[in-house]
Automatic annotation (TrEMBL):
InterPro entries: rRNA_ssu_MeTfrase_G, SAM-dependent_MTases_sf. The gene is rsmG. Keywords: Cytoplasm, Methyltransferase, rRNA processing, S-adenosyl-L-methionine, Transferase. Gene3D superfamilies: Vaccinia Virus protein VP39. This is Ribosomal RNA small subunit methyltransferase G.
Amino acid sequence: MKTDAYARLQEVAGPVSRETFDKLIAFETVFRKWAQRINLVAPSTLDDAWERHILDSAQILRLGGSAKSWLDIGSGGGFPGLIIASMIAERAGASIDLVESNRKKAGFLQAVVGELRLPARVHAKRIEDVHGAIRAPEILSARALAPLPLLLQLSAPWLQAGTTALFHKGRDYRQEIEDSAHQWGFDLVEHPSLTDAQGVILEIRNLRRI
């Protein structure tokens, strides 16, 4: 089982050390314990958490290249923020900021960061309240947070400063892109999801208001 899971992780995320894989296994164990007490993800997805949440999150590591500075907004149950934190832990000087306004979920994030010794900082605040406190990272991520027009508004201070966004999106993403075009211009690359046949990862650069 673990051998198959390790092979699948590398298929989705690229070369990954055995130590990183073990860290993700440890994360899954902690996540499942907390998920019994607070609502971290839809209960119907818990049985397939490895593929639906962990691997789905891990795939953006490949798209982020060798980036060392990351920001995840609306981190919720740790996807993709805690997964990225686990996977960049071996990169010297790498770190990720996690922004989550829900106190219970922020408590979960902080507990996992401490228990697994992850290179992450948790900000238990609204996204709008940390715009001036977090310097523009190389990569900004968000998953299952908001429609694209609102995502662009929330992340604009960083994207307009040169940050690249990697946003998980589902089957309605084309309509969201169309809705965004009324207010924003941007460079876009659509990456098919490796875990969801109807999903994509939207890579957005050079955000500008129209």
